[in-house]
Design a protein that fits this description.
10% helix; four-stranded antiparallel sheet; 1 helix; mainly beta; single chain
Length: 149
């Protein structure tokens, strides 16, 4: 009887892991996966950094994972305010020479871009580098998405 109880507890524990999220970096063209980050959960965050192609200054966006596996833009930071810079949502402050916008709360099912190795594009999760510009093919359409596993 006791062994059945232990077996049921173990099975229920395994079912609890179904809320685990995996971040995937892949090609939009052919689905080639370039990197994955496993064992994530809702509320985990990651930061994307690059050099703006027009302003030539660093840009940073921080996303939070949601229970639904979406990406929630929670903060963006940049040094110069120009065309295409969001200003309609969130709370804007200036800190250490950067414009910081928090509370944007914009949900994306997937983050898509055309990758350039010339703009120092990189992704960090928990202060660890997941990939940098050289890790991905130049001028290829890429995407970051999250799957429940």
């Amino acid at each position: 009887m006791r062994s059945w109880f232990i077996l049921i507890v173990l099975m229920l524990s395994a079912c609890g892991d179904s809320d685990q999220l995996t971040l995937i970096v892949q090609s939009q063209e052919d689905g080639t996966v370039y990197n994955t980050v496993n064992h994530l959960s809702a509320q985990d965050t990651f930061t994307i950094k690059w050099i703006h192609s027009v302003e030539k200054t660093p840009w940073r966006e921080t996303y939070q994972l949601t229970d639904e596996g979406e990406l929630l833009l929670i903060e963006t930071a940049f040094q110069s305010f120009g065309a295409g810079v969001p200003h309609q949502k969130g709370t804007m402050t200036v800190e250490d020479g950067e414009v910081i916008i928090r509370g944007i709360d914009e949900r994306l099912p997937v983050f898509r871009w055309i990758h350039s190795q010339n703009v120092d594009f990189e992704l960090e999760m928990n202060n660890e580098l997941v990939f940098d510009a050289e890790d991905l093919p130049h001028h290829e359409r890429m995407e970051i998405l999250v799957e429940k596993r």
